[in-house]
């Protein structure tokens, strides 16, 4: 693949995620107010897009409560800071087991929901973008499977499309890109197509550069794409993504650290990404430019 550096780059900030990071850093936002404030600060630092999960305000554990999504949405929309809103739809496909001798019954810790329930907050809040995890995979823990069957993805994708929300494909391995192409061919995912390459997440695609370029080379030329890696390689992937022709994602969902021993805020991670991008000779583009590029419409919640 010839080098085709991207010189017009948008930054996505993944604000809080659904991992068990709530007690590992005081900067991981929990309440809707904290999540919105952190998203706004990231936007002010240069993020054109904010990708939001919600958490239980008391415990910090991941939640699918539509009321929490509604509050986050309204707080961000009502602020004086413009930013493209991207809500996750990844919750509700968490299948867990209580050990290898109990595989005949899911653990009560599982969180499985139907397609309508998984996208209810998206239909209600009407963000510009929402995510669609395009595959099933073993996900880090010993007996945890992230479940997204082909039928479920077709159903969720159609509901997202019909709600007028741009789908961001989350691809954790090359097979996820293969199925995403099929969803595009079937018309479930309309153009312009947007994909996030998720690198280094156990046990998806590792974040070595050979695997990364295999992922990049499987993205059709007319798709828009971003990429990220988790942990210590987050900032290295800012440079790698731009150099390979893509956009970038940073944020506390994927990495808690600014430097060794220094916990980061979302705004600090975005500021560092801006510095890397600009020193490479590229320009960080605005929310308005992202909307024009991806044919997005900023709408109030229903």
TrEMBL record:
**Electron transport found in the keyword field:** no
Which is an annotated Pfam family here?
BKACE
Q: Which cofactor does it need?
A: Zn(2+)
Q: Which GO terms describe its molecular function?
A: 3-keto-5-aminohexanoate cleavage activity; metal ion binding
Looking up PANTHER family in the UniProt record yields: 3-KETO-5-AMINOHEXANOATE CLEAVAGE ENZYME (PTHR37418:SF2), 3-KETO-5-AMINOHEXANOATE CLEAVAGE ENZYME-RELATED (PTHR37418)
The alphabetical list of record keywords is: Metal-binding, Transferase, Zinc
- The organism is Cereibacter changlensis
In its UniProt entry, what is this protein called?
3-keto-5-aminohexanoate cleavage protein
């Amino acid at each position: 693949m010839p080098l085709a550096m991207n010189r017009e780059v948008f930054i996505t900030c993944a604000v809080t995620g659904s991992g068990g990071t709530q007690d590992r850093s005081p900067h991981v936002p929990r309440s809707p107010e904290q999540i919105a404030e952190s998203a706004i600060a990231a936007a002010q630092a240069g993020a054109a897009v904010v990708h939001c999960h919600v958490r239980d305000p008391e415990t910090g554990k991941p939640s699918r409560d539509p009321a929490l999504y509604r509050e986050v949405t309204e707080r961000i929309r009502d602020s004086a800071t413009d930013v493209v809103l991207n809500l996750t739809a990844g919750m509700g496909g968490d299948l867990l087991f209580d050990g290898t001798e109990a595989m005949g019954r899911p653990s009560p810790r599982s969180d499985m929901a139907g397609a309508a329930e998984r996208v209810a907050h998206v239909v209600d809040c009407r963000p510009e973008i929402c995510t669609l995890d395009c595959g099933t995979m073993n996900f880090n823990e010993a007996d945890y499977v992230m479940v997204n069957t082909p039928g479920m993805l077709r159903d969720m994708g159609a509901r997202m499309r019909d709600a007028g929300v741009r789908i961001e494909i989350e691809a954790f391995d090359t097979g996820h890109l293969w199925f995403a192409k099929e969803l595009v061919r079937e018309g479930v995912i309309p153009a312009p197509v947007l994909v996030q390459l998720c690198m280094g997440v156990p046990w998806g695609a590792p974040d070595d550069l050979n695997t990364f370029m295999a992922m990049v080379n499987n993205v059709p030329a007319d798709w828009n794409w971003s990429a990220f890696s988790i942990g210590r390689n987050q900032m290295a992937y800012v440079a790698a993504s731009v150099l390979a022709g893509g956009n970038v994602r940073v944020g506390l969902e994927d990495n808690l650290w600014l430097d060794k021993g220094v916990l980061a805020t979302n705004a600090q991670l975005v500021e560092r990404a801006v510095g890397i991008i600009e020193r490479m000779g590229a320009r960080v583009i605005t929310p308005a430019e992202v909307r024009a590029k991806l044919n997005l419409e900023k709408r109030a919640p229903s």
